[in-house]
Design a protein that fits this description.
Layout lengths: L8 E3 L1 H7 L3 E4 L6 H13 L4 E4 L6 H9 L27 E5 L5 H12 L3 H4 L5 H16 L6 E7 L2 E10 L5 E8 L10
Parallel strand pairs: 2-3
Antiparallel strand pairs: 1-2, 4-5, 5-6, 6-7
Helix pairs in contact: 4-6
């Protein structure tokens, strides 16, 4: 690890174990020439096979440095935020329900999680097998149901059968983020998500 206060790069232990090769993440959204020597030293000492870098798209210098150091474009990430200052009452159509997912839902939720992988950064990165990507998201959803990765998993049901889900991670008492969400193809375009 480089610089213990603000890790420039870190080995992703869980990802490395799961995928079977060493994966690291650059913790800045920009690169500079000064970082490259330290990054390469870490990569060599930790035997890193794959480095992930989430670049600020407005930082042209970082893009050039990444490209000249054999990084390649895999995905675009968009972050949407919304301040919610009051309780929002959901109008759920009859025969549908919405509640926290339980252990009995896991098998169906895993099937729904396979829809997520087709839109993930891993799907377009040829370093990852499709089978392992499916397992990755199945594992994520199961952990979310038990509160072991994301804190909670909420489920949309049709006649008590899971048709969609949303995992939530609480960042503070006032802030939360969505981890994964999916809805069955059959129930898309109905205003349910």
């Amino acid at each position: 690890m480089i610089n213990n206060k603000n890790l420039l790069i870190e080995k992703l232990k869980w990802d490395s174990m799961f995928f079977g090769f060493n994966v690291a993440l650059i913790n800045n959204n920009y690169l500079s020439i000064e970082f490259i020597e330290d990054l390469n030293s870490f990569i060599e000492s930790e035997k890193i096979t794959l480095v992930q870098f989430l670049s600020d798209v407005n930082n042209y210098e970082s893009m050039l440095i990444a490209k000249s150091n054999d990084f390649y474009f895999t995905d675009i990430r968009l972050t949407s935020e919304k301040n919610i200052n009051e309780f929002i009452k959901l109008e759920i159509p009859s025969n549908y329900s919405f509640s926290k997912a339980s252990q009995k839902d896991i098998i169906e939720l895993k099937k729904l999680s396979n829809l997520v992988c087709n839109n993930s950064r891993y799907f377009f990165d040829k370093n990852f097998s499709k089978t392992k990507i499916n397992e990755f998201y199945e594992n994520w959803i199961e952990k979310a149901v038990f509160g072991l990765f994301d804190d909670e998993c909420y489920c949309m049901y049709y006649h008590k059968f899971p048709i969609g889900f949303c995992t939530i991670r609480y960042e503070s008492a006032e802030k939360a983020s969505i981890g994964l969400f999916s809805i069955s193809n059959e129930y898309q375009n109905k205003g349910l998500a």
